[in-house]
Write a structure and sequence with these properties.
Layout (H helix, E strand, L loop, with lengths): L6 E5 L4 H12 L3 E6 L2 H10 L4 E5 L5 H15 L4 E4 L10 E2 L2 E2 L2 H26 L19 E6 L3 H4 L5 H21 L4 E8 L12 H9 L10 H13 L7 E4 L7
Parallel strand pairs: 1-2, 1-4, 2-3, 4-7, 7-8, 8-9
Antiparallel strand pairs: 5-6
Helix pairs in contact: 1-8, 3-4, 4-6
């Protein structure tokens, strides 16, 4: 499938990696619903492309918010065939620090946004995708190649090599990695694929305030290219997953060969 035929929902689509996906879809004449808590920024983006973008103020950790947002996207576009989960928080902190034990509600917040948000978006998107009509066949296609939708989530290389102070974040990203194969197996009968991308260090709001001297040190930990990735490079990977039907049930590292220490 091509992005020009995309009817998508993107959580965290008002900034960072999610915005990169939104911009790439719009550039190819697709349509997209931005699900984000940042109403001002989301509305501003949507106003630039009113025929292609709708904004849905969404707390990705809230069941009703996510269901309502995806329902609105389907009502507006007629259906959806791509869901991309990019909403998340870093949740850095030691379990026991000089300030005392990490509050349980802080750890829970990271789980609610990063992990429960992934579950809720998957459930809402798949519920609608499974009712999509399969595309009409042409002479070059066969029934086995038909599909109803694709779901792509954002994991992290921290799922594999979580750093000091990343217990909460790494736990949620590891869980996302663990979800992919069971999800792909479950939704196979509905012709829906599920994948995840595990980015390394990318130019996002999370890293925007990193001082130059620290940034230079981080670059040295990335063999090649020794720089942060861009949102468009992430979006290109989402596009390739959407287009390549053999990608299903797995996680792709997008990290310049970086390994966290």
């Amino acid at each position: 499938m091509s992005f020009k035929n995309t009817l998508a929902v993107v959580s965290g689509g008002a900034s960072g990696l999610g915005l990169g996906v939104v911009e790439r879809i719009v550039a190819q004449d697709g349509k997209v619903a931005i699900l984000d808590i940042n109403e001002e920024q989301g509305q501003q983006i949507a106003s630039r492309f009113p025929e292609q973008i709708i904004f849905c103020k969404t707390d990705i950790s809230k069941e009703e918010d996510v269901d309502n947002a995806v329902d609105l996207a389907v009502k507006t576009f007629g259906s959806i065939n791509l869901a991309v989960g990019c909403a998340g928080i870093l949740g850095a902190g030691k379990i026991i620090s000089k300030k005392g034990p990490m509050p349980a509600d802080y750890f829970q917040k990271v789980i609610d946004i990063n992990l429960m948000g992934t579950f809720l978006l998957t459930r809402a998107a798949a519920r609608h995708m499974q009712t999509n009509e399969l595309p009409e066949l042409d002479s070059a296609d066969s029934e086995v190649n038909q599909e109803r939708g694709v779901i792509v989530h954002t994991a992290s290389i921290a799922a594999y090599e979580g750093q000091f102070g990343q217990v909460a974040y790494s736990a949620t990203k590891s869980a996302i990695v663990g979800m992919m194969l069971p999800l792909a197996r479950e939704f196979a009968s509905s012709a829906i694929r599920c994948m995840a991308i595990a980015p390394g260090m990318f130019e996002t709001p999370m890293l925007a305030k990193v001082p130059d001297h620290i940034r230079e040190g981080l670059y040295k930990g990335i063999p090649f290219p020794s720089r942060f990735g861009t949102a468009d490079e992430f979006a290109k990977m989402v596009e390739h997953i959407f287009d390549n039907q053999m990608l299903n049930g797995s996680v792709i590292r997008l990290d310049g060969a970086a390994r966290l220490q």
